[in-house]
Design a protein that fits this description.
With 237 residues, this protein is α+β, with helices and mostly antiparallel strands. The chain contains nine helices and six strands; from the N terminus they run E-H-E-H-H-H-H-H-H-H-E-E-H-E-E.
Length: 237
């Protein structure tokens, strides 16, 4: 069994193309288990100010990242001009991460993934402020998630603890950025890699992780066997 912890943030531009590729990975390898994990690039407004000097500078700098992320994206979906014209500061991480985690509480990993992707599309394609709770609510209502159950989960302090637990797991792996895949708890695939490279890495890991049958040799018994010796089959009782 291959298990992948997929660490990402709703405001992470390179997580947008990576999520699309991981859906393709899941189709190619339906037997693998993908666990979605929260990672916060900017928990609060103050984080943007600390990193970029001001909220205005944050938006300008982050939009320059979008140019590269759009080149990385297989579908080139980023609406950079739309975000330039948008009259709100660049969002922070926590509302979106909590909204996705609440969806996961209600509808499992698939529910989490659907809302995570919808939040990213709202930000990167539709130039919507996913810090705005009304925007988040609209996204949930337009999904298959039971809104009432989602609302209860969103407001439940235990859901925030689940998000914080993801942060602790990320720290355990010493992750400093996203997207990041941790495969079977010990292999790191870092960054928005091409689909072919992701699949090849997983295949290599699968080969490494294939159980090896322990050979027991008991000299007291002589069971029949056939072996290759000097290029010939030799069978012994």
């Amino acid at each position: 069994m291959i298990t992948i912890d997929f660490f990402h943030d709703v405001i992470c531009s390179f997580c947008f193309p990576m999520s699309y590729r991981m859906r393709q990975v899941q189709k190619e390898l339906p037997e693998i288990k993908i666990i979605h994990r929260s990672f916060a690039l900017a928990r609060t407004d103050e984080d943007h100010v600390q990193m970029f000097g001001s909220r205005e500078n944050a938006k300008k700098e982050i939009l320059s990242h979008w140019v590269h992320a759009n080149q990385n994206d297989d579908l080139h979906r980023f609406n950079i001009e739309g975000m330039k014209k948008a009259d709100f500061p660049f969002p922070t991480s926590m509302n979106g991460l909590l909204a996705a985690k609440a969806a996961g509480v209600v509808a499992g990993e698939s529910g989490y993934w659907d809302i995570f992707d919808a939040l990213q599309e709202a930000l990167f394609v539709n130039s919507q402020n996913i810090d705005d709770f009304a925007v988040v609510e609209s996204i949930i209502k337009n999904s298959s998630i039971d809104f009432s159950k989602w609302q209860q989960a969103f407001n439940n302090p235990e859901t925030l603890l689940l998000v914080e637990d993801d942060f602790r797991v990320a720290n355990t792996y010493q992750l400093t950025g996203v997207p990041a895949l941790i495969v079977n708890g010990k292999y790191l695939i870092n960054g928005a890699q091409p689909l072919e490279q992701i699949l090849q890495a997983i295949q290599t890991i699968k080969e490494k992780e294939t159980p090896i049958i322990e050979v027991v040799d008991n000299d007291q018994t002589k069971n029949g066997s056939c072996n290759m010796e000097d290029g010939k089959w030799v069978c012994k009782d």
